[in-house]
Amino acid sequence: MPIQIVRNDITKMKVDAIVNAANPSLLGGGGVDGCIHRAAGPELLEACKALGGCPTGSAKLTLGYGLPCKYVIHAVGPRWQGGCQHEENLLISCYQRALSLAKEAGCETVAFPLISSGIYGYPKDQALGVAMDTISRFLLENDMTVYLVVFDKSAYRISGKLFANIEEYIDDHYVDTHSDPPNRRVSSNVFYEASRPFLPMAASMPGKSLEEMVEQLDESFSEMLLRKIDESGMTDAQCYKKANIDRKLFSKIRSDRLYKPSKPTVLAFAIALELSLEETKDMLMKAGFALSHASKFDIIVEYFIERGNYNVFEINEALFAFDQSLLGA
Predict the structure, then answer these.
(1) φ, ψ of residue 112 in degrees (nearest 5)
(2) CA distance 229 to 249
(3) What confidence score (pLDDT) does residue 70 get?
(4) Given 16, 33, 125, 246, the catalytic residue
(5) Exposure class string for 128-163: b at 16+ Cβ within 10 A, else e
(6) Measured distance CA(101)–CA(90) in Å, rounded
(7) How many CB atoms are closer than 10 A to CB 84?
């Protein structure tokens, strides 16, 4: 998955590079910076001394030494001073420079902390927005998997207003499976209604042999997806990047008309193609799924579709905040 939000200790991430939220001296400090220096060992400090510091909004690269990564990218974010001292531009520059260094070093996987959101005091919801926006723009033009690593829930926060709005929407729409009406049985993946009884295929196609019925299968998920991409005017790459889907997975879907995707993958493509709620349900049905109000994951995705917000990265921010699976591969 091009961007994945994970809870972990960044010093344990087995990636090509981790990003250190460093101070301008690059000589270690508190928080993430201190943890990385302790885990890497004294060689990292000696390498940083040779770099001669780093200005705010930029980054420099060293080897990983005792860490399970090849490189450490030391990125110096801004201190929050009320938002009037170009903090946002400096933070954007910080991410851009770190990503450029990772690309120059040939990195395929990079792990970032939420830069400046700790002792530097940058509001966490705004820091998250800058990180996701900047990384997602970079990934539209580059192939790389980026992990945004948070140590615990206190280090991660979406807009309080957005969280409250989604929470209210969930409260209004969530249906406990035990309180479902008797004519409906719901799961997070599929649904059946007594008013629409299931008929075996043979009963709906009398006089047909098994071979004839198989030959008359409906449009598959893969076929529908490729048709929708053509209709949208997007290229394949534009679609799978907008969906937060890995190129290799998309190649599998394209080459196999009967490919069986996961539900988050289907929804990621529906979001990338900006499908309506009804079109999204149709695409899910092609893969054997349905939206259910017994699933908070489904309700949150529905919330964004109904409001015409098709930014998969913003949706994933919200899904992570509510402890749900993310959209994408």
Answers:
(1) -110, 145
(2) 16
(3) 98
(4) 33
(5) bbbbbebbbebbeeeebbbbbbbbeeebbbbbeebe
(6) 16
(7) 6
Task: Let me know: does 78 contact 85? Beta carbons within 8 Å.
Answer: yes
| 283 vs 264: CA distance, rounded Å | 12
Please name the residue ranges forming H helices in the chain.
Answer: 31-40, 42-49, 87-104, 124-139, 160-173, 201-204, 210-215, 221-232, 236-242, 247-255, 263-272, 277-286, 296-306, 312-321
What is the Cα–Cα distance from 18 to 111, expressed in whole angstroms?
5
DSSP lists the bridge partners of residue 19 as: 73
Residue with tokens 């961007």: 3
Does the annotation mark 33 as catalytic?
yes
Half-sphere exposure of 171 (CA within 13 A, CB side): 6
Chunk the chain into consecutive blocks of 10 residues (it has 329) and report each block's average pLDDT, rounded to whole numbers.
89 97 92 93 96 97 97 97 95 98 98 94 93 94 94 76 92 70 41 40 55 65 97 96 94 95 96 97 96 96 97 94 88
Is-contact 1 327, C-beta < 8 A? no
3-state class of 73 per DSSP?
strand
Find the largest Cα–Cα distance for the chain. Answer: 82
Helix or strand run (H / E) with residue 5: strand 3-7
Do residues 15 and 328 touch, judged by C-beta distance below 8 A? no
Sign of CA dihedral 11, 13, 17, 19: negative
Written as six digits, the tokens of 124 are: 């966490």
